[in-house]
Every structure is written in structure tokens, then in C-alpha cells.
């Protein structure tokens, strides 16, 4: 299960390279149509489907072995995060694991001064959480926290690649969205890069477990075992 599946990249990659049966959950109808078209072109209609649903309403009685959420929580906000975690927990089978991937705000730190700009022009109603709030909401839902990894420096590099590609395709971008939107996103990426470099924001991946009966995890003992 991919909650907030975006343009379906994770769904397609997992089905193509690992043979999984995957379900994407989204409210964005345009993105859902895009994903359905890409799934058909890849010949994966028997393994991948997209459901248009609010995460609070989505319920699969069979449940899932794995779940992921890639930068969806920033759109959920602090208040709704416990409900969000509870929805993922409900849709996992016992022993299922959930990868929660999200941008976080450094604890005890005010929002960057450019936040009003971002809220108005880039991410309306977006709200970052701290890693403390993320883990507290996960625990409240019933998850056991198994691993937390901060990829802040990696994301700084990623942002650098994004802006280089944007600038290299400046004329195409402006033709699609106009010069004002192009300049807005160029400025936003610059501000975000500074925020990650300074450590005001981070990119955290949390591996969360829905325990089996008796508290058993069923997980390998080390990170090396996970990756192998």
C-alpha cells in the first residue's frame, strides 16, 4: 500500500522489480489517471491498482504486508497525524511494516522565515512535523519504532540536481507553467536547500512495525539483513 501515491513511481518500481501486488491511495484524480495509464503501458494491470479515496476512509479487509508513504505527511499536518498513522496501522496485517518518509522540522525550532511564501505559492495548507511528533503519533497508533534514518544531506544533493534540471529545461518549463511559476519554484528550491543545509529541516525515514501476537516482530536482526 502506497498512501498518497503521487505519480505512481514507487508502485511501478516495486511491481516491476520485486513482483509485488500494490495498491496506491490518492485523492488526486489527475494523478490517478496518469498512474493507471502508466500501469497499462507497463503491462502491470494485474498487479497494480489505484484507489481514489481519503486516507481516513480507505479500508482493505484483507490487509497489507507492507505500506509506504513518501512525503504525504507534510500535507496531513500535526493535528491529523495520529489519525493518519491509525489508518495505516489498521490496513496492515500483524507483522506488517510501514516506511514513513517525510520532511521534518527540527524540534524546538521556529518555522523558516520563508514559510508564508511556501504556504501561499507552493504547498497550501502544508505543515511540517518534528520527528518527536512523528514517533509519538506512531506509538499512539500501536506501532513499534524499529529504525529512524535522517537523509538530510542526501536531500540537499537531490535538490541541487532538481534545480539544475529545471534550469536546463527553463524554456520548456516556462512554456508549460509560465515565467512566474517557474521563478516561484526556482526560489522555493533555493530556500529549501538552505534549510536542509542548516539543519532546520530534515528528511526522515521511519520503519514502523505492527507487532505479531506476543510482541514478536518477525524482522531480521540487523540493517544488513534488511538490505540484503
Task: Pick out its properties.
alpha/beta, 46% helix, 228 residues, globular, single chain, 3-stranded parallel sheet, 4-stranded mixed sheet, Rossmann fold, 7 strands, 9 helices
Overall description:
- With about 230 residues, this protein is an alpha/beta fold.
- It has nine helices and seven strands; from the N terminus they run E-H-E-H-E-E-H-E-H-H-E-H-H-H-E-H.
- The protein has a domain of about 130 residues: Rossmann fold.
- The longest helix is centred in the last third of the chain and has 20 residues.
- The two termini are about 20 Å apart.
- The mean pLDDT is about 95.
CATH superfamily of the domain at 54-151 and 200-227: Vaccinia Virus protein VP39
Per DSSP E runs of 2 or more residues, the count of β-strands stands at: 7
Largest sheet: 4 strands, mixed
Quickly give the CATH architecture of the domain at 54-151 and 200-227: 3-Layer(aba) Sandwich
Mean pLDDT: 94
Question: Can you lay out the helices and strands and say which pair or pack?
Answer:
Layout: E1 2-3, H1 9-18, E2 22-26, H2 29-41, E3 48-52, E4 64-70, H3 77-91, E5 92-105, H4 115-121, H5 131-141, E6 144-150, H6 152-168, H7 170-177, H8 179-198, E7 201-209, H9 223-227
Parallel strand pairs: 1-2, 2-3, 4-5
Antiparallel strand pairs: 5-7, 6-7
Helix pairs in contact: 3-5, 6-8, 7-8
Amino acid at each position: 500500500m502506497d498512501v498518497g501515491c503521487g505519480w505512481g513511481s514507487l508502485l511501478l518500481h516495486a511491481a516491476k522489480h520485486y513482483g509485488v501486488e500494490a495498491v496506491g491511495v490518492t485523492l488526486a484524480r489527475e494523478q490517478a489517471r496518469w498512474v493507471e495509464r502508466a500501469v497499462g503501458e507497463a503491462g502491470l494491470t494485474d498487479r497494480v491498482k489505484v484507489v481514489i479515496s481519503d486516507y481516513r476512509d480507505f479500508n482493505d479487509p484483507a490487509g497489507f504486508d507492507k505500506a509506504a508513504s513518501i512525503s504525504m505527511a507534510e500535507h496531513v499536518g500535526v493535528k491529523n497525524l495520529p489519525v493518519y498513522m491509525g489508518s495505516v496501522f489498521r490496513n496492515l496485517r500483524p507483522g506488517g511494516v510501514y516506511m514513513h518518509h517525510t520532511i521534518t522540522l527540527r524540534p524546538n525550532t521556529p518555522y523558516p522565515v520563508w514559510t508564508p511564501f511556501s504556504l501561499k505559492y507552493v504547498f497550501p495548507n502544508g505543515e511540517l512535523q518534528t520527528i518527536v511528533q512523528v514517533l509519538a503519533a506512531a506509538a499512539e497508533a500501536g506501532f513499534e519504532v524499529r529504525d529512524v534514518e535522517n537523509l538530510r544531506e542526501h536531500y540537499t544533493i537531490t535538490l541541487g540536481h532538481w534545480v539544475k534540471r529545471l534550469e536546463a529545461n527553463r524554456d520548456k518549463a516556462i512554456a508549460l507553467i509560465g515565467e512566474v511559476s517557474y521563478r516561484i519554484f526556482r526560489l522555493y528550491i533555493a530556500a529549501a536547500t538552505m534549510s536542509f543545509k542548516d539543519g532546520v529541516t530534515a528528511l526522515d525515514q521511519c520503519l514502523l512495525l505492527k507487532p505479531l501476537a506476543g510482541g514478536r516482530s518477525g524482522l531480521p536482526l540487523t540493517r544488513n539483513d534488511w538490505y540484503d
